[in-house]
Structures
1.
Amino acid sequence: NPTEILEKSGLDEIRISLNAVNEEEYNLLCRPKVNNAFPNLIGFIKECANSDIDTYVSFIVGFEAVKRTEDEFRQFALSLGIKQDNIILRDYIRPID
């Protein structure tokens, strides 16, 4: 179990940029190079949240490709076991052309 290994090594905090609430949006935004990246990441986040590791999850609000409200991101993070204070929402900043 990777979470147990991290915990035993002394890791006490982790911050994960999730940016999506489902696999389709995750694949669109993050373009993972491995299959099942989203479900594996969700499992890892849940394991961390259920351990002694202080787990934070972040989302970028305002991507044009994904129309989600801050509340939708918050509710999803809470459903994973993330504490309200450990949900980070950042505004999308468009690249300079």
2.
Amino acid sequence: MLSQQQDIIYNLGIDIGSTTIKAIIIDADKQVLFKEYRRHNADIVTSGRLILNKILESFNGCKFRVTLTGSVGMGYAERLGYRFVQEVIAAVEVIHQKYPDVHTLIDMGGEDSKMIFFE
């Protein structure tokens, strides 16, 4: 378990797609502290609860800035009052920051596929 440092706010990103849920926690230096990938088999609530329980085991008492994405994420973000970022926008941000030499991104999801060209 991480030591509880009340002044630190971690970033928790949750991608709820048509077939999977993915979660990642990063710190202010963008270091990955936690990641989880789970097929939800159309039981999003149970799968999400399992992931959140894992997070609570390791990050109990910590504060998070939560952002949701994914084809199912928007509805949950609206109901729970969390920030939502459309998945293509999120992918483009990461590519620009971490891989500036990339010219094409192909995202093959459970529901659709997307191809993004960068100039």
3.
Amino acid sequence: MKAKLFFLLFAMILSACASQPTPDPKALAAEFDALVEANHQAGLFDGAILVAQNGQVIFSKGYGFADRENKIPNTPQTKFRIASISKQFTAMAVLLLQEQGKLSIEDSICNHITDCPEIFKPVKIRHLLSQSAGLPNTTAYSMPGDQMISKSATLFFQPGEQFKYQDVTFNIAGRIIETVSGQSYADFLKQNIFEPLGMSNSGVDDMKQTDLAMGYSNAEGDIALQPIHGLFAEGAIYSTIEDMYLWDQALYTDELLPQFALKAMFTPQIAVPDGEYYGFDGSKGWSYGYGWFIAPKELGYVIHGGMLPGYRSEIRRYMDDKAVIILLTNHEAVDLTNTSESIAGKLLGNRK
């Protein structure tokens, strides 16, 4: 009798699960469009957005103008500066070199940097990628990586003990990539990441690009902001929402790296202090992997954003649900996090 009751209850649970309506992709796309269009009309979004799940693009659209003066619209093919999302590509490049046997993330950075002060020998490459190196911060983007550290022989804390978000750590990682590979950072990424994945509209900005979206400070006016010169491995990449989707999909495969090697990118390496960065909403338990912020387990996603004068960017991946939300903008006065959270709520419901 008990066995029959158990199987009856089990069947009822299965039936209830099966009866949950599957969201209609067209209806979802219409909801996403209405949400983003309202933000656009309110002067809160110019750019492009892509939403996908289970290998299917549900929604992909551009809003506003890539060039306001010449009335060139933003489209899914528009190239945007993705700013600090570049960091995950730098991390991937380092892991590729490790897979090739040319370095180890356990190496001291002094193994690969000339004139390395003795005090920096405890700093390992993995500390650079996890924002836990303890190095002095600098915004001297144009300074070569070896000069960045030889000029400031100080550690603010012991490597691996604290999280401190910095651009300099990824610029040093970029310099190591060049030293070890014998190629420029741009050429290494092109040959080993962009070309293999078919990311034909992505690259490292050499300030000679003439087909990137112009960056604007707000919704008013046609005067574009001047881009920052001298960006490097911390934030110099440009891409499109379509290319970023190719990147997202590749991270589920062995196309670039075996999954066991990729796992480190999304494994917590260092705790992010409560209330900082994506924990500003009161959520606790954030951490940083290699080029990715990792949300608390109950939230179920990894994320990274970027910001430069005139540009904002965000990629949010719900890996268990095989879902991704990509937003690239050429308008810095926007709140991408609220937009992506609203979309995630509609896409995933109570699984968000």
